[in-house]
Task: inverse folding
């Protein structure tokens, strides 16, 4: 049975800053557990907007609120958890097959997302009932 705690991880990136300011380095393959093939960032979403609402068959992600705050609800079909991204040094790693919803964006929220895969709409599951069916199968694998 797949446990949500094994599918997500809170990452804490070191701050290499000095008296000139902060410097956070995120390297693929070490600070994040994959080689980075894609980055995208989300900003200008109103606080009542809910984004995401999908799972990915192959993509893994690391989400970082480099500015401002947002919340991420993660779900594996059996368990859910809400994580607040509220520090530029904090990352949320999501394995593939995790359902995610991002919401409660602060006005200054810039949500940076790193992924191990290029964009492929075919590997997105955007229907929650379909997701539950797929996960029901996986939970009993
Ligand atoms: P969407 O997946 O709905 O964004 P979110 O996860 O924030 O809710 O993506 C919005 C649009 O952008 C959709 O038409 C697909 C496109 N898109 C890409 O072309 N490449 C990407 O890497 C991403 C994340 C989205």
Result:
């Amino acid at each position: 049975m797949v446990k949500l705690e094994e599918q997500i991880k809170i990452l804490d990136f070191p701050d290499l800053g000095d008296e000139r300011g902060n410097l956070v380095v995120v390297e693929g393959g070490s600070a994040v557990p994959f080689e980075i093939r894609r980055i995208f960032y989300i900003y200008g979403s109103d606080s009542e907007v809910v984004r995401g609402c999908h799972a990915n068959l192959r993509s893994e992600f690391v989400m970082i609120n480099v500015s401002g705050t947002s919340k991420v609800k993660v779900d594996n079909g059996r368990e859910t958890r809400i994580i607040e991204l509220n520090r530029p040094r904090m990352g949320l790693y999501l394995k593939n097959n995790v359902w995610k919803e991002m919401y409660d964006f602060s006005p200054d929220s810039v949500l940076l997302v790193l992924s191990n895969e290029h964009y492929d709409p075919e590997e997105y599951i955007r229907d929650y009932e379909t997701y539950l069916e797929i996960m029901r199968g996986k939970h009993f694998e």
The radius of gyration is 15 Å. Residues 38, 40, 42, 51-52, 119 surround thymidine-5'-diphosphate (CB under 6 Å). The first strand starts at residue 8 and ends at 12. Residues 38 and 119 are 8 Å apart (CA to CA).
